[in-house]
């Protein structure tokens, strides 16, 4: 009887481990990452000269709506363009439909615009990927040759980790993609790039990428939540009296208005071993 119960328990444990759903967490910067760190999607681009620019959150918390705003700022490295974007995620139990929409306040000076997918070596080294039904093995990390797997017009991409983790990406429209080995930069990831056309961000136009992300065991989506701070029983009252105590170190009443206005005597300069006003 004990042996039978032990076998049943082991079978149930194996079933639970193998069929555990994959949890994905949406970030306030437009990213989407599996909770176990296997994959992470994130909007990104390269300004002219291949200077990497990552998406940043517009708000620290999310209001719970279906779309998450983010931005990519070029700053002084390019022409000061700002890319505004919205990331939308919708789960149906077996997969997540993700859509990134981007527009710019002026045509950015850039080399590449893409949705990046971080694939850690510890998960995918020794694994494989499949592009529209054609299978390939992930190459061993190589500091000499970093780019591989470039393809255009891709409708479906499968990613398989060395321990059997499986992710499938089905694109709304055909996309170009490529992989890059991070070894030359001492980064322990493969970087998958889902490439958007550079000229899609002309003023008044939109760049979009949509895809359905699924796993063999189902998914669960966790959206960022609005954070509200409220006093509880563990809070301690703190009375802050306004103003400055007369005669204290912070009381400047005795010197306020003396020799006004500020700058009346010019700048301070060094004379020998001491300082003097210019005037």
Taking pLDDT < 50 over at least 5 consecutive residues as the criterion, the unreliable ranges are 4-18
Query: Helix and strand string, N-terminal first?
Result: HEEEEEEEEEHEEEEEEEEE
Rg over CA atoms, rounded to whole Å, is 28 Å
Strand percentage lies at over 45%
Distance between the termini: 101 Å
Biggest beta-sheet profile:
16 strands, mixed
Q: What is the helix tally?
A: 2
Average predicted local confidence, pLDDT = 87
Helicity range of the residues?
under 10%
Overall shape: it is elongated
Q: Can you describe this structure?
A:
This protein is mainly beta. The chain is built from two helices and 18 strands. It has a 16-stranded mixed β-sheet that branches. A two-stranded antiparallel sheet has the order 17-18. A hairpin with a 3-residue loop joins strand 3 and strand 4 (51-54). The chain starts with a helix and ends with a strand.
Topology readout:
Layout: H1 2-18, E1 22-26, E2 32-34, E3 40-47, E4 51-54, E5 56-57, E6 67-73, E7 82-91, E8 95-104, E9 110-120, H2 121-124, E10 128-131, E11 134-137, E12 147-160, E13 166-181, E14 189-196, E15 207-215, E16 219-222, E17 268-271, E18 274-277
Parallel strand pairs: 1-16
Antiparallel strand pairs: 1-2, 2-3, 3-4, 3-9, 5-6, 6-7, 7-8, 8-15, 9-14, 10-11, 10-12, 12-13, 13-14, 13-15, 17-18
